[in-house]
Design brief:
The complex is a heterodimer of chains A (117) and B (411). Chain A is α+β, with helices and mostly antiparallel strands. Chain A is built from 2 helices and 5 strands; from the N terminus they run E-E-H-E-H-E-E. Chain A has one domain: Ubiquitin-like (UB roll). Chain A has a 5-stranded mixed beta sheet with strand order 2-1-5-3-4. In chain A, strand 1 and strand 2 form a beta hairpin. Helices cover 45% and strands 11% of the residues of chain B. Chain B has one domain: Cytochrome P450 (Cytochrome p450), CATH 1.10.630.10. The chains are: A alpha+beta (117), B alpha+beta (411).
Amino acid sequence: MGPWHESTERNGSLTVITFIQHDGSERMVDGDLGLSLMETALKHDVPGIDADCGGAAICGTCHCFVEASGDMPAPGSQETAMLGLRPDRAENSRLACQILVSDGMADITVRLPEFQM
Amino acid sequence: MPDYRGMPLEDLDVSDPRMFQYDHWHDLFARLRQECPIHYQPDSPAGPFWSVTRYEDIVAIERDTATFSSEPSIAIIDPEPDMILKMFIAMDPPEHDDQRRAVHHAVAPRNLQEFEVLIRERTSEALDSLPENEPFDWVKLVSRDLTTKMLATLFDFPWEERDKLTEWSDTFTSDVRITAGEGYTREIIIGHITACLQRFTELWHERKGDGKEAFDLIRLLQADPNTENMVDDPLTYMGNIMLLIVGGNDTTRNSMSGGVVFLNQFPDEMAKVRQNSDLIPSMVSEIIRYQTPLPHMRRTTTRDVELNGRKIAKGEKVVLWFVSGNYDEAVIERPNDFWIDRPSVRNHLSFGAGIHRCMGNRLAEMQLRILWEEALQRFETIEVVGEPKRTCNLFIRGFTELPVKVTRFQS
């Protein structure tokens, strides 16, 4: 399945988020200001994110690997604590619920892990 | 039974396990949440302790592991000074994180997929052998049987000895001081710990270097550089074994029984899942919330701290009542309803929250999902035909007996 873009008209000021599943399939969606990457995935039915706790950074089931062309907010202490439990943690590991799409944010690529736990 | 609504706040006893035995606790925690969400009890068989009963307060504490430590114990009773088992559930970062990661692999979803076929086979066998049209004990023939077999599979424990796992688990969690005198004394518990450690040490040495693929928990510990020599530190080895035995036992077992009770209490929900089996995963989460098989965990303050206007001194016990948070009307809509397709159904506290959140959560959910997929396919009725008997234990909300009658679909 090749990449495809969901919105009908591209607004240049928006952040585009590309979700890449563990099997390599891709999906691009427009970010909504104020919505987290986790909420964005759920809104567009992008699989691979469980989000058990609903965004409080207390379950770790929205773990993902994030690449951005510009600056990203650094993880907070709770997010860092949860990421520390993941056997598959990488340099760019993040909790999708802790990154909110903000004005002027660069495009983001979100790689999903093989499984949430 | 105490009338929790009419008593002075200072007389409320949050340490009496009979509240779970007689399923008489809703009023107690409802009152605490409303009138005294951070409650101090100066005297109990486990000594003085604080109770935290609101969902949001529990989460706030779980996020602050520096102030609310899991050491020396997550049980309301302090460990015996000469027998402090080292288990990561009772450790703080960073040591906690290293140990947890090492055993996390064993219950990672990748391994679970391989287990699923086996679990389904064993579940099917157990359900197929149930008597029809006559009452039987669901706890014994289904819940205990299946969780024991699952644990034996996870450890690759000698099959014919598997009942020992459940016996040990029951003993470890049944200190006489939290069971209204029904449990075991220190001597008996230590005897079981010693026997358990001895057997698992033998198994470790039998398996070490036998070249077989690391699939069971013992070989997985041996295969990880962080834990490959764990057997040389018996208190750590035993701590981890105990954690895995208890973690995979009372929890799932009692949720397996609870589901039957709830679906009988709420026949409309049973009708819903009969009509749409896609609701089973959501129902499983709701069963786990509604049961809350481990009603609390304890933390210990590392400094003086103020919480919701109450001053808690350094070194005091703080008990987080997950069972109360799971019924907190401020967060959970219509909490007293068993509602299998409720919104945000996974958002409950039965697995805890934060870095100590249950490591076996996906395994537990899978076991319960398979049980209900197979049971609903076979049985036209699953009827509770007598009063369930409940566990008298402050640490466990569960069932010791559940009379049930089933009828099979005519094929």
